[in-house]
Amino acid sequence: MNTGNATNGYVIVTTTVDNAEAARKLAAEIVDAQLAACVQRMPIQSTYRWQGKVETAAEFLLQAKTRAGLAEALIAFIQSRHTYETPELVVTPILDGEATYLAWIDAETVSAAGEARDEVEA
């Protein structure tokens, strides 16, 4: 673990979509574009205020693990494909993580120059 480094350059970008197929498709597109190494999809029930009313809806929560330097590009990518008028887009820093897992995130996402990284650094 990188216990001495509280800001190690990794984040989780969270969004929600309205159905399982939209979640599957968006997750696959994000990983295929190498903007995140992994996207987890979970069914949830959301309660929220929208246009003056309290609403409840079944949604799918997506959590994308990526490098902090890709968060802005990932958010733009999600916004360009999202069907919600005001999609949830939240970036949460990963304060710590197992070194080989974080190296895997590096290896499976595009570099700052836009080039894919193919190997995990030792």
Description:
- This protein is of the alpha+beta class and 122 residues long.
- The chain has a single domain, classed as Alpha-Beta Plaits (2-Layer Sandwich).
- 28% of the residues lie in helices and 33% in strands.
- The protein has three helices and four strands; from the N terminus they run βαββαβα.
- Strands 2-3-1-4 form a four-stranded antiparallel sheet.
- A hairpin with a 2-residue loop joins β2 and β3.
- The longest helix has 13 residues, at 20-32.
- It is elongated.
- The relative contact order is 0.27.
- Mean pLDDT is 89; it is low at 1-6 and 117-122.
How large is the share of residues in beta strands?
Answer: 25-35%
Q: How large, in whole angstroms, is the Cα Rg?
A: 15 Å
Q: Specify the CATH architecture.
A: 2-Layer Sandwich
How many domains comprise the coordinates?
1
**How many β-strands, per DSSP?**
4
Query: pLDDT under 50 segments (min length 5)?
Result: 1-6, 117-122
Helicity level, as a percent range?
25-40%
**Distinct helical segment count:** 3
Describe the main β-sheet briefly.
4 strands, antiparallel
Question: Remind me, CATH topology?
Answer: Alpha-Beta Plaits
Helical/strand content category: alpha+beta
User: CATH first level: which class?
Assistant: Alpha Beta
| Mean of residue pLDDT values | 89
Strand neighbour order, sheet with most strands: 2-3-1-4
